[in-house]
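Please produce the structure of this protein holding flavin-adenine dinucleotide.
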Amino acid sequence: MTSTNGLKSGSNLEKVFRAGHLAVTCECGPPKGADVEHLKKKIQMIKGYVDAANVTDNQTAVVRMSSIGASAILVQNGVEPVMQMVTRDRNRIAAQSDLFGAYALGIRNMLCLTGDHQKFGNHPFARNVFDMDSIQLLSMVRTIRDEGKVNSGEPVEGGVKMFFGAAANPFADPFEFRAIRMGKKIYAGADFIQTQCIYDMPRFKEFMKMARDMGLHEKAFIMAGLTPLKSVGMARYMNRNVSGITIPEEMIKRVAGVPKDKQADEGIKICLEQMAELKEEEGIRGFHIMAIEWEERIPEIVERAGLYPRPRVD
Amino acid sequence: MEKESHLYATCSAACPVHTDTREYVRRISTGDYEGALDVLLEVNPFSSVCGRICHHPCESQCRRQVIDAPVGLRLLKRFVVENTREYRIQRRKKVEPVLGRKIAVIGSGPSGLTAARDLAMLGYKVTVFEKDSMLGGMLAHAIPRYRLPVDALQEDIDDILALGIESRLNCEVGKDVSFKDLRKEYDAILIAVGLAESHSLPIPGIGSDGILLGIPFLWDVANGSPPTLGDRVMVIGGGNVAIDVARAAKRLGPSQVIMACLESREEMPAWKWEIEEAEEEGISIMNSWGPKAILEQNGKTTGIEFKRCTRVFDENKRFNPQYDESVTTSLDVDSVILTIGQKANLDFLKETTVGVDRGRLICDRESCTATERGVFVSGEVMTGPGSAIQAVATGHDVARAIHHYLETGETLKLPQESIETIGELPAQTAARARKFDHIDVRLTDASQRIKDFSPIEPGYTEAQALSEARRCLACGTGAVLAPSAQCAGCLTCVRICPYGVATVERTASMPAQECLTCGLCAAECPAAGVALARFATNRVKETLESILTDCSAEKIQRPLVVSYCCLYEATSRKYLREQTRSEIEETGILRVMVPCVGRLGSIDLVSPFELGADRVSIIACHETGCLYTGAEELLERRIQQARRFLDEIGVGGESLQFFRTHTSAEESWPQFWRESKEDLRATSAA
Amino acid sequence: MIVADPKPFQEVRGFLENYRKILILGCGTCVTVCLSGGEAQAELLASGLRIAFKKDGKEVTVLEDTVQRQCEQEFVTPVLERVKKEGIDAVVTLACGVGVNFLSDRIGAVPVFPGVNTTFYGGNVEAGLWSEMCAGCGECITYLTGGICPIARCSKHLLNGPCGGSEKGMCEVDPKNTECVWQLIYDRMKLLGRLDEMRNLLPMKDWRPAMDGGVRRTVREHIYRLSYKSQT
Ligand SMILES: Cc1cc2nc3c(=O)[nH]c(=O)nc-3n(C[C@H](O)[C@H](O)[C@H](O)COP(=O)(O)OP(=O)(O)OC[C@H]3O[C@@H](n4cnc5c(N)ncnc54)[C@H](O)[C@@H]3O)c2cc1C
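Below is the modeled complex.
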């Protein structure tokens, strides 16, 4: 069921987890076109500072370079990708086919998502697919990896050894169901979890407690999601417009309390404090830093968090 | 679609002649006073009289009273007769006695004259014998003039006589002409002699000088030769006649008029309002006292002694007074008028074979017959004391019986009337209806009115009548699902009905008993399947079509404004009257009077444009004037929707205008119409 | 029932440029109930068209009619005959899309235009408000979800619980008006004492019974093509 060395995929991320290190991932959004150079620049910024980087799949339903294509470029440039795949745009046929293609291109981690509704993107008039949800996608790809069968039951030619992840949002409702839903993802096949960015620490801790009560922290590697605040404006915007995110008022005040040109630094400082606090939280196995269009600060954050250099595990 | 409900409204059911109340009230509110008179006279030849003195059972049964107060139907009736005098004279017609048979009517009270009228209309030759110098019975001789002026009665009588009825005044049957002679000369005889005599009392002192009887007293008062009264007058009796006697006596100037009766205040048979008016006039009432003796000195009445009456009616509700002889009281009085009941004078039948039993005429009420073939009976001599309108009703009945007899030679058993009414207005429906103040008229001040016999009650002004007429719930003429309707049971009616009346069980149903006839469901029905008996909106279209096709398009003063107006806002007939073609052409305003513009459906707002209108202007009631809960909100939304639609179809939403009446219709409407026309010119110039 | 909304007037007007005798055909069932295509609406549209044509100086006859259900052979036959007899050269139907097809399949060379946009299968939640409640997926799974359908009522048709866009009971796609169906299901399962079942993984749905399996039809054998009926 696992590869010879006891690993499911042998990806760097998996190895870091299994060696007991706190893993670090970040986000690397593909360009809204085929601008490979731009992508390569981002890759250079983060190279060496993270164990793997998430490559988003038409995030917020805005059309971008495909996550497979961009992930392949990451592979070529020495950063391990976590390829995201959403069910919004592909049915089970396309999803399985893309999985095979991705694996063939050297991609070893995949994050299974349902995806943002197209209403939020630049093609709100498009038809969506949603042939399955993220949990069903996890279950399908796990079956391919572990049982060598596609969804219809037919055999897969050659093995597909990938490390599968899922997202969890402790801040959406109904709250009592959030840990259960994460559990469903884990039972369906998630090897690791990346959470929605954390601002409301007490709620997150409550969530983790529920997860631990269910033993979920022992069944998957849970990574705390973090997004450093760039400015008060951003904080307020997220508070208002991103559902499932509430930034506590004190935190906003704290950022607002410093001059405009220092707000970004303050945001990073808060982020680092959170990381310090979360390191102590049982069941947290790494950090997923979503510094959106702010990749240049990743090295600094990772260093200041005492997580640099990244371990090399063989 | 005019669909007559088979159920009686409670007002019509209560009326002994079943006057079509809803219809005459409707005609009043549409300004058709003449039409209203037609409705009245159809069943009630004494409409003028009833407009004054009817005890109006219709009002007592008016379903509006659970909401606020009954509709002032009697005064509306009076308004009609007072405002259609010319028309009434025009509509009189002589009917030739083509049937050749002759009928004698003894007594010219309301019942005798009603029968005479019906029979004359059928073509019989009718002769009325009246012992007095004036026709009308008690109406002419007993009811005091301050309540019923002579001219009001005269209008009714003139109508009746115009048919060609012969009347023999000062001709008492039994004295001036014998009953037997009448029998010989006439094919049928109607005894309608009423109850012209008052009962007396067998108590000590009753023969003293100062004792009078009620009916003769009133008779003399009415005939302008009132008897001399002492300064302190006691009236015995607690009924309406006693009240009339007391009030008439009061007008003759004594310093004190007191009434005494056996009944407690609550038991008094007189109408509550009559008692109150009497008291206002300074008449005091002693309840629960029975006359024990008249006190006299030298044959002159000096006082009266009473004993306590402990009970008037027994367990079986029969009149059976009990007294406590130990409790007495006495008063000094100069005159005592006894008004304790009436009886007929049947002396003229003495030497005939017509059956009389202990002073009462033997008769069969179901066939209105006496014991002899060809002799009929009606009015109070048959029924006992009652009301004028009841006497009228028996007049109709007996006319039918006589007609049947003369045609077939057989007695007609009048079919038992079974009257199905729409029932009471349920309290929960009433609670949701809007209240509207009943329009009351102010009687002349009591201090003024006791001075003479002038009428004390003013009639409604036109504005008052129109305003009161709108209060009519038009019971039973509300929403009906048309038989052809494709009711999908969509529940829209249920959802918008302001009164919670509409229900859906497979298809919609708006029970007549509850429907308050606002018409909102008809306006909103997506299947266009709800019809209104009282005002079907499809009539708007028909009217428009006929007018617009009739008017020559070139002559119309453009822009042509179709103006839907809330007819309830009219305070005169000015805008209620139908417009002439030339008026429409000259003004370019086509009025459509609607009982609540809230019932105009979207199609009503749009279709005038199709029929040639340039603009539609809706004039609703006052800000707080709407009769119907919810109508304003629904109309507003419908107008918004229609405006959007008019925008879409290229007519422009602004062509649909909305106004609310302020001050009066007569004042504000012309201003709205000017605005409608000007606005359009401005936009068309731009 | 099927819910539909009236098409914009000008769109309908646009279909009718070249016709002289047009029938506006209301439908007496679903579209009557949802106030978009019953007799009253047919009258209104017909009146509007007459006004618009007249304004444009066009001589066009616009007729109106309403049948009980336009999705039934027996109910539409009289209309088809009328169209033929009266020389009607275009029909605008206010029925749902079924009516448009049903007529088109039978009416010969006369064009049939839609007068409404058919939107969804829904229920009347309150006066004047209809809400989607079924997607006609062909294989009802609501027995698993407390009787509440996540396919019809979740913006993403999720089968295993609410996505991250569920906030305070509302769906992020339309937070003002649309409830998160998974919140509803959660609450209802709680009410029914079935919360435990929320942990179960619902497998991927077989979409064949839905429209993905091709055009659907249903036969009721017991009355389908009765031999004695086909003889006559
Ligand atoms: C004082 C008073 C007040 C009333 N107030 C009201 C009221 O407010 N509202 C209401 O609805 N009703 C009222 N009534 C009742 C109403 O007047 C009577 O119900 C009605 O008049 C009865 O009509 P009738 O035709 O039976 O007889 P009457 O009206 O009594 O008429 C009988 C007629 O027959 C004549 N007559 C009698 N014998 C002979 C004869 N032998 N030969 C020729 N003619 C004869 C009489 O002179 C009389 O004119 C009142 C009655 C009275 C007495």
